[in-house]
Amino acid sequence: MVEEWAAIGAVLLLSLVTFATRIGGVWIMSCVPITPRIEAFLKYMAASVLIAIVVPATLSGSPRIWVAVAAAVVTMAASGSALGAMLIGTALAAVGRGLGF
Amino acid sequence: MNPPEIPRFTASGVWRGCVEIAPVAAFVIPFGIAFGVAASAKQVSAEVSLLMSALIYAGASQFAALDLWVAPLPLATLALTVLAVNARHILLGAVLAPWLLRVPRIRRLAALFFLSDANFAQAMAARERGEMDAGILLGSGLTMWICWMAGTSVGVAAGSLLGDLSRFGFDVVMVSYFAAIIVGQWKGRADLLPWVAAAAVALAGSYLLPPGWHIIAGALTGGIIGAWRHG
């Protein structure tokens, strides 16, 4: 269990980090131009961080989690709706739990 | 030669931004609910969940932080992970810079605090139509923020009422959402190598590295290979 004061301190730290990313682009542009290489790095890092969270979390989970994530991927690829993908993944995980997986 | 354009930042611009983004902002509410529920599932208090949504105000990074939310809080890992997830803001800001560098600093910082993918996209579309008033960025950001907070509040309330959340499948809300975002970012074969490398390094790291560091290792691997191949 995380202590309340530690949690609030962490949230303040993460708020500062996030605000720095929001003002960082304008600040950097007022000094130097962003090269295509830096742009590619930021773009690929943004996708990769999510991949780095999802892949190990899914593979280390139970079969109902594999099915839920696979269904979310297929739904997104077919419909382009992240919300729909999230709802279908969640629904299948609930059904899986109900069936005892 | 074109007459020099004069960026403005007015109350009427702020109001236009507020109203124009409303149909898009409504779709943020379910994600806010999902975050509130997921935070409850992680035993995060209502106050801290709301503080996260109010001050961090960046959905994917808030979910990522929940993933690492265990005592004692791994502050360095949390900060680096949130930095990596939100690094794309740097690009959005860079695109907006020519516009925002010409409005007074306090207003610029206020508009940037509420910057998100959705209100960035809306502001750029408005700019294409000849919009000069940077106030729309603040206005649209405010509406998005209000919806995000409303959703979080409902989710936090629901989460504490519902009890064991895996019964409803809410334990997979985050991974399902992230998986969908990843699929949505797929632009073609060029993405394959950086993505597979990120996944492989993260997977290996989840066995070999201290908790959470596999995320940073995977993110850096994907970023570096992407920059090397496509920069």
Q: Can you describe what's shown?
A:
The complex is a heterodimer of chains A (101) and B (231). Chain A is mainly α and 101 residues long. The mean pLDDT of chain A is 91. In chain A, helix 3 (63-79) packs antiparallel against helix 4. Chain A is built from 4 helices and no strands. Chain A has 2 domains: 1-33; 35-101, no CATH class. Chain A has helices at 4-29, 36-59, 63-79, 82-98. With 231 residues, chain B is an all-alpha fold. Chain B is built from 13 helices and no strands. In chain B, helix 1 crosses helix 10, helix 5 runs antiparallel to helix 6 and helix 12 (192-208) runs antiparallel to helix 13 (213-230). Chains A and B meet through helix 1, helix 2, helix 3 and helix 4 of A and helix 3, helix 4, helix 5, helix 6 and helix 7 of B.
Write the layout of secondary structure elements.
The complex is a heterodimer of chains A (about 100) and B (about 230).
Chain A: H1 4-29, H2 36-59, H3 63-79, H4 82-98
Helix pairs in contact in A: 3-4
Chain B: H1 11-20, H2 22-25, H3 28-41, H4 46-56, H5 59-67, H6 75-86, H7 88-100, H8 105-113, H9 117-128, H10 135-162, H11 173-185, H12 192-208, H13 213-230
Helix pairs in contact in B: 1-10, 3-4, 3-5, 3-10, 4-10, 5-6, 6-13, 8-10, 9-10, 12-13
Output the keywords:
heterodimer, A: 101 residues, mainly alpha, 2 domains, 4 helices, B: 231 residues, 13 helices
Parts with pLDDT < 50 across at least 5 consecutive residues of chain A: none
Sheet/helix structural class of chain B: mainly alpha
Tell me, rounded to a whole number, the average pLDDT of chain B: 90
Which stretches of chain B are low in confidence, meaning pLDDT under 50 for 5 or more residues running?
A: none
β-strand percent of chain A reads under 5%
End-to-end C-alpha gap of chain A: 27 Å
Shape of chain A: extended
Biggest interface goes to:
A-B, 82 and 98 residues
The share of residues in helices of chain B is: over 70%
